[in-house]
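User: I'm writing a short report section on ligand binding and want a predicted complex to refer to. Could you take this sequence and xanthosine-5'-monophosphate and write out the structure as tokens? A short remark afterwards would be nice.
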Amino acid sequence: MEPSHDRILVLDFGSQYTQLIARRIREAEVYSQILPCTAPLATILAYRPQGIVLSGGPASVYERKAPTVDKELFEQGIPILGICYGMQLVTHLSGGKVAKSTHREYGRAELVIDDRGDLFKGIGEGPSATVWMSHGDRIEHIPPGFQILAHTANSPIAAMKQADGSRRVYCLQFHPEVAHTPAGAAMIKNFVYDICGCKPTWTMQSYVETAVHHIREQVGKDRVICALSGGVDSSVAAALTHRAIGDQLTCLFVDNGVLRAGERDQVQKTFASQLHLNLKMLDRTKQFLTALKNVTDPERKRKIIGRQFIRHFEHESKKLKGVKFLVQGTLYPDVIESVSFKGPSATIKTHHNVGGLPARMRLKLIEPLRELFKDEVRILGAELGLPDEIVWRQPFPGPGLAIRILGSVTDVRLAMLRAAETIVDQEIRSAGLYRDIWQAFAVLLPIKTVGVMGDQRTYEHVIAVRAVTSLDGMTADWAPIPNEVLGRISNRIINEVKGVNRVVYDISSKPPSTIEWE
Ligand code: XMP
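Assistant: Sure. The structure tokens for the complex follow:
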């Protein structure tokens, strides 16, 4: 989509940090893209990259099926930066020697720079040059033609380069992309600006201009439809498309009866009243709740909600004449074909989405966020004038509160969960924790417990509070919410939500648990 921007490719060898590398480069306002390390040389070159980064990875270069690259890659005159496994691979393929370390080096190390040169330009010594190591193998002999640039106490060769003739290869044993390497961003900038010669032109403002142009070209005079959920992705995709084609876009918002308190009104206010977007609100509460009656199996709940959604969406959109396109808020992490990206959770639960719609309705797709990471989508949303409540909204699953009510979904249980959810949300926000937490919510358990209120014995429901920190929802840790905040949440839920006499806090990480309870 961005032919006019410089581009850095990141070849993924399976590191958990690959996406971070691409993000750091983009933070330097240079466009970067991830390709699997198995991409053929011709494919890599067809992207015309100004530079290539070889990521880290879990393998050892001596393993039988260790991932590798075509040696010709080094002969193209394109600057290369090998990180960790990338460095070992460069060494292995260029005639150096990689050996098993006597012990795994993991954690912080002080970098001593032996040759400041271009890669370490402006990087200080001492604590400011702390770097993050995570490797088993290490370089024993550098390849011919290379020179050592830096060392640490445990790694005599922490950085090296070869810069002669057409070869411009730089290698780091540590991870410049992680926050634990404070000068890492500066090193990455040195690589992309000074060594690769890239210009910082990749900004959200330029992204909007290009995307608007493309959407207009793609759509012409046809009509476009969008399934708006109020989540960040569909909201930003809709706002961007609206910026491009105005009233040719119609958004449909389906109230499935399992939304949180006030959600529908907020979407109505933001998109219809403030952004003047063509918004159709479909209240299908009754139909969804009837279909969910007495259903307790989580997967069945998901399937029913998915099917109902498609039915109502399709029915309504057929009333609009001449619709040829569907807008979807697909993000870059969903389309990266990388080695490490898809964790096991991708297949553990049937995620309800609108994936089946385009083929069924014979619509072409508009996916204006396909090149962006989540944090970039937020910046874009702000650039498009969306309010903070939308831009910073925590993710909310398509099947909504149905998968947070364990057991069957009834009006009474929905009311109980909504009230508890509102309290969790309010308290997390007022404690200033909302943006640091990936998701915080309440779950209604299918059991009752004994309590005492006044002089009365009670026998009522339990609410579990779940709050996790995460980067992408693939892995997560329970959030260490301060005790006072937990105390306030518990007090308020027990006092204000009728039918609840106990609150528990979920302290499970993902894996082995998942974020949602169903
Ligand atoms: P789990 O529970 O699998 O959730 O750890 C990971 C992330 O995905 C969200 N989630 C869903 N989103 N449809 C969605 O659109 C679904 O069926 C669904 N199930 C889970 C969940 O909220 C978390 O952010």
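A remark for your report: The pocket of xanthosine-5'-monophosphate is lined by residues 302, 345, 349, 351-353, 395, 397-399, 439, 473, 510, 514-516 (CB under 6 Å). The first strand starts at residue 7 and ends at 12.
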